[in-house]
Amino acid sequence: MIRRNRILRTTPAIRAMVAETILKPSDFIAPLFITEGEHVKEEISSMPGYFRYSLDGTVKEAKELWSMGIKSVLLFIKCPDELKDNKGTEAVNPNGLMQRAIKAIKNAIPEMVVMTDVALDPYSSYGHDGIVEGETIVNDATVEVLARMSVSHAEAGADIVAPSDMMDGRILAIRTALEQSNLTDTGIMAYSAKYASCFYGPFRDALDSAPGFGDKKTYQMDYANSREAIKETLIDIEEGADIVMVKPALAYLDIIRIIKERTTVPVSAYHVSGEYAMVKAAAKMGWLDENKAILEIMTSIKRSGADLIATYFAKDAVRLL
Ligand code: PBG
Fold it and tell me: Does the pLDDT value for residue 3 go beyond 90?
C-alpha cells in the first residue's frame, strides 16, 4: 500500500492543520425577533431557547452578539394585529417598530451591520408577503411598497435591506429608490433562491405571520428545481444585489454550491427556523448531541459555499468555536 490516507487524520493537531473549512464569528448573521413593550422576553414555543424581545432586550442582545464577534443582525418585527392591513401601511411608518429598532441598535452599537427583512407578511392581514387581490399576490403593486419600505429602513439607519418576498423586479426597484433618495451606501442582500418550504413553520409562529389562505408557492420557488435558482440569482445580481441568499440551507446545499460557482458576489445561506427546531427537538429527546450537531451543520453549510450564515444558532456556534 502506498496511499495511507489515515496519516492526515492521526492526531487533533494534524487534523487541524489540514482542515479546509474554518468557521469564524463574522460568518454569522443573527436574526432577532422584536416585539412592542418593555422588558418583554417571550420564548417562541416551536423554537425553544429563542426569544422575542422588546426594544430594550433587543439592544442588550445585540450588544452581547457584538461582544462575541458577531458583526450583523437581521431584524424581524412582530406587528400588532390592529396595525395589519393589505397595503403595508405600517411597514413604511417612519416611527414603526422596525424603524425604531434600527435606530436603537445603531445608537447603541454604531458599527453593527444592521440588516432588515423586507416583505409584507408580518404587516399583512392575510399573512402574505405581498398585496392580495382576490386570491392573487399582486407583483408590481407589492414591489412599489417594498421599495418605499427599503427607503424607510435605510433612512432609519439600516446598513443592508434584505428583501425576502420573491416578487419579480424588486431588487431593481429597491436599488433605484435608494439611489433616488440619495441612500447610496445602503446594501441589498437578496433572498434570491428562496424555496416554498415547510421549514419556515416555527418562524411563522414567532411573528404570527402564517398565510391566512393558500400557500406561498406562486412566489417562492419549487424545491424540485435547481436551474431556476441560477436564473433568479443572476437576475438579482444584474438588478443590483450586493449579497445573494439561498434559503433554507441544509436541504439545499447543492443550490448553495451551484450559486457559489455561478456568481462573484458573497453568498449567504439561511439556516431557518424549522432546521433549528429539528436539532432542538432531537437533542431534547437525547437523540443527538446538540453542540456537535450545530458545528457539523454550520461547517457543512460553509463547506458547500456559503460565505455568510444566518442562523438562530449564531451565539451557540460562536461559543463552541
Ligand atoms: C418572510 C420571511 C420568512 C422567513 C424569513 N422571512 C417566512 C416566510 O417566507 O414565510 C423564514 C425564516 C425562518 O423560517 O427562519 N418573508
Answer: yes
Mutate to test the pocket of ligand 1, among 164, 218, 252 (most ligand atoms within 8 A of CB): 164
CA of 204 to the centre of ligand 1 (A): 7
Rounded mean pLDDT of the chain?
A: 97
> From atom 11 of ligand 1, which residue's Cα is the shortest distance away?
200
- Is this model's pTM higher than 0.90 or not? yes
Q: Is position 10 within any domain? A: no
Which CA distances in Å does 262 have to 190, 227, 232, 250? 16, 11, 12, 19
Give the model confidence (pLDDT) of 242-287 as tens digits: 999 999 999 999 999 999 999 999 999 999 999 999 999 999 999 9
CATH code for the domain in which residue 261 is found: 3.20.20.70
Do the domain assignments include residue 2? no
Distance 203 CA to ligand 1 centre (A): 6
Where in the sequence is the domain holding 268, given as residue range(s)? 23-320
Catalytic residue among 24, 41, 87, 194: 194
Helices 55-67 and 97-108: crossing angle in degrees, nearest 10, is 40
Question: Total domain count for the chain?
Answer: 1
C-alpha of residue 1 to centroid of ligand 1, in Å:
52
Q: How far is CA 4 from CA 7, 11, 16, 157, 189, in A?
A: 6, 15, 18, 56, 45
Percent of the chain with pLDDT over 70: 100
